[in-house]
Amino acid sequence: MQKLERGGQREMGIVSQEAITQLKALMDQVDEPLKATFQNIHQGYQTDTLVRFLKAREWNAAKAHKMLMECLQWRVQNEIDNILAKPIVPTDLYRGVRDSQLIGMSGYSREGLPVFGIGVGSSTFDKASVNYYVQSHIQINEYRDTVILPSASKKHGRPVTTCVKVLDMTGLKLSALSQIKLMTIISTIDDLNYPEKTDTYYIVNVPYIFSACWKVVKPLLQERTRKKVKVLSGCGRDELLKIMDIESLPHFCRQERSGSSHHSENYNCFSLDHPFHQQLYNYIKQKSASQEPVAPIKQGSFHVDLPEPAPQGTEIAKTIESEFHKFVNGNGLSKSLDDH
Predict the structure, then answer these.
(1) Are residues 6 and 148 in the same domain?
(2) Angstrom distances, CA of residue 191 to CA of 53, 73, 90, 196
(3) Residue limits of the CRAL-TRIO domain (predicted)?
(4) Disulfide: which of 7, 205, 268, 316 matches 170 by Cβ 3.0-4.6 Å?
(5) Strand 198-204 relative to strand 114-118: parallel, antiparallel, unpaired?
(6) Is residue 293 a part of any domain in this protein?
(7) 178, part of any domain
(8) Is 256 exposed, middle or buried (0-12, 13-18, 19+ CB in 10 A)?
(9) What are the backbone angles phi and psi of residue 166, rounded to the nearest 5°?
């Protein structure tokens, strides 16, 4: 059996190398302005980028090429290369976005991967329009890909092209149903334009209602996504400390030790006052000032074409909705769900 597996891996190596060569040959033919935005995506690590798109299309070079070309066209049409020069102003509005779209970077894993905390359960998305939330999400992606990852790669002397995400389900309740559409839009943007950027998703502080949904959503996920998701018990502290130091642990994973609550306020990676968000916001303001030294920054969101959610994403959203309703009606749920 082992021999077969090793043979399979070897064969996969040949297949993947061929696919990389094919896709590279296709991408070498790309002209401006797509060429410039492609360089902005790969940041000098072209092969790693080709591999990400190939993985997302099961190593089919033609499909990966189509996906990558559509991504480049989306970037050019929506001026994504310039989005880090478009601050969300005034600051109070941006603070509102940060207080209701809970995401932040808490540090790095021991392997050098950036660690992002996401407050799935407590994000309300009710302080701004959809466009601001999409703009903010893409800006964090672009800052990660053009500033944080290249800097980590330089520090470690090897390509660091992915991150770790820790999803906090604290506060997850029925009102989350109203946010499913926006969250599906954001995840579709990621799937189509930032594929395979997350190494592992750790899910923590899981309430009963999530356990119920997870059991039915899990089979709908693609196998490569399913393999990346790890549901941890409690706040996940002990498991996460195996791959990162305590300084990099998101604040919502620190709650199991007494005396850590006052610590949490200082290290709340969602807050606009956290060093990550301060650096990001200052970076965006500086980029904006260098581009338009005379004209004042205008208030208004940066409109990005919103994608049609993929059929799979729509199916998952519908399944979650139906499970939430079942949960409320109290039918069809067994106590054993808590164990999953």
Answers:
(1) no
(2) 10, 15, 30, 8
(3) 90-250
(4) 205
(5) unpaired
(6) no
(7) yes
(8) exposed
(9) -115, 115
pLDDT at 279 over 60: yes
Boundaries of domain holding 31: 2-77
Helix, strand or coil for residue 244?
Answer: coil
Do residues 97 and 88 make contact, with C-beta atoms less than 8 angstroms apart? Answer: yes
Average pLDDT in the 170-195 region? 85
Q: Which residue has the higher pLDDT, 157 or 15?
A: 157
In order of 156, 212, 322, 335, the CA distances from 330 in angstroms are 52, 12, 12, 11
> Both 238 and 93 in a single domain?
yes
> How many domains does the chain contain in total?
2
Please check the confidence at residue 266 and state whether its pLDDT lies above 50.
yes
pLDDT tens-digit map of 40-50 = 999 999 999 99
Instruction: Point out the domain boundary residue: 22, 50, 77.
Output: 77
In the chain, % of residues over pLDDT 90: 65
HEC secondary structure over 173-197: CHHHHHHHHHHHHHHHHHHHHCCCC
**Domain for residue 124, yes or no?**
yes
> Domain of 54: which CATH number?
1.10.8.20
Residues 6+ apart with CB under 8 A from 16: 51, 54, 59
Q: Name every residue whose Cβ is closer than 8 Å to that of residue 208 and which is 6 or more positions away in sequence.
A: 337, 338
24 and 66 housed in the same domain: yes
Q: 232 to each of 204, 205, 235, 237, 246, how far by Cα in Å?
A: 5, 8, 7, 9, 17
Angle between helices 311-329 and 208-217 (to 10 degrees): 140
How much is the pLDDT for 1?
32
Structural tokens at position 162: 């992915």
Pick the range with the lowest mean pLDDT from 72-76, 189-193, 289-293.
289-293
Is residue 313 domain-resident?
A: no
- The pTM (predicted TM-score) of the whole model is 0.87
- Residue 220 in contact with residue 312, Cβ under 8 Å? yes
